[in-house]
Amino acid sequence: MLLEREILVLQCSSGLRVLGNLHANWTLIRYKCLEAAGQYLAHSTASVGILDCSGAEQPDPKLESWLDSYKGIFWVAVLSKCQLARKEWQLFVATHCYDYHTIPISEEKLFITIGRAYGMTSLKNNLNLPFHRGQVIGGHDSFKKILRQLHRHSGGGLTLYGESGTGKRLLAKTWANIKGFRFLELNTKSHDNELDDYVSKLGGIFKESVNDPYCFYINNVELLSKYMQNHICSLISNDSCNASHCDFVFCCGVDFEEIEGVGLFSPEFLILLKKNWLVLPPLRERGQDKLVLAKHYLYKISREQKKRLLGFSHDAEQAILKYDWLGNVTELIEKVMLGVSACEDNYLSAELMGLEDERALHEYTNLSLLEAREEAEALAIKRALNLVSGRPGQAAELLGISRASLYRLITRYGIRR
């Protein structure tokens, strides 16, 4: 009987092999070397793999970096119950894996999971679902609406409007990647004597794009000369820009209601800009997305800096949710990067991110005595635990309460030790 599928098994430790090869319709292709496994994936159509981590002490940073390059693979982790009880392995599985199984392995159950993973890859491929990879992250209704509109876009130019730092370029680049377009950013600040040469080159790229599709991204479109505006309109009106092989994404800093009165655009180009107009919401209006994005960049930046942070402290999470984020996602990334660089603990605090003052400001505006008392209690407990390196007995003595009362309050306020 011919085997239906090959499954990559990446042996991540020197422990015993926990998997046999007992299933009639599958064959296991085993690798220990990441480079060799990468070569195998580069020349195969595999979309599901098994990570045998059962003998490893800690998640390997090299492995995590390697897995970041293969986000299109549905990984199923194999590890022990002791490993799974530890925060660093929970974080590893949640970040990189589709599912997990603990040893001793039931191969029958494992291959049911593998079958479901293959089913999910087939379903997503058939539906051509976008934005399940890369850094386009968000579950807020206003942001999901933007993703749905992008998915339905069928060509003819697209305009993104939003505050600085909302991720317009990243969104455009990810959309181009999903559509299979090469991403090309056009210069809006070319001098007049350079425009003729620039237009000539642009026309040549358009001719090539029949076989090699392009997404032309223009930031600060209000700086685009009317000469270039008219040339782009001419290309589109002459059917040079076919939706199947090229498209334009414009980023505009002028509000939709004001765009006609600013006098920066030719009438034809104004019609093009307003045709498919999407407004990206600022980060402060995206609710829990602030924390979701912060956690994503915390794990990403901590791995880049060869650190293993497990999350944010309670005060940091509250500060992230309350902060106004006038610089949007760009400011969020900068704050997380600042904190990770200075952090020597497992959890990143608001103080290290430069958000301590913002959190305190919100505390002083809280007029509920009950909430103010609870926040003060939680802050006192966290400071006491920090002073005694997390030892609850000594912290209880500092606070003047019993150890049982301290445990009760730790549970009530969700404080990490």
UniProtKB/TrEMBL annotation:
Keywords: ATP-binding, Nucleotide-binding, Transcription, Transcription regulation
Lineage of source species: Bacteria, Pseudomonadati, Pseudomonadota, Gammaproteobacteria, Aeromonadales
Domain Sigma-54 factor interaction stretches: 183-341
Name the UniProt record assigns to this protein: Sigma-54 factor interaction domain-containing protein
GO biological process assignments: regulation of DNA-templated transcription
Pfam families: AAA_lid_14, HTH_8, VpsR
GO terms of molecular function: ATP binding; sequence-specific DNA binding
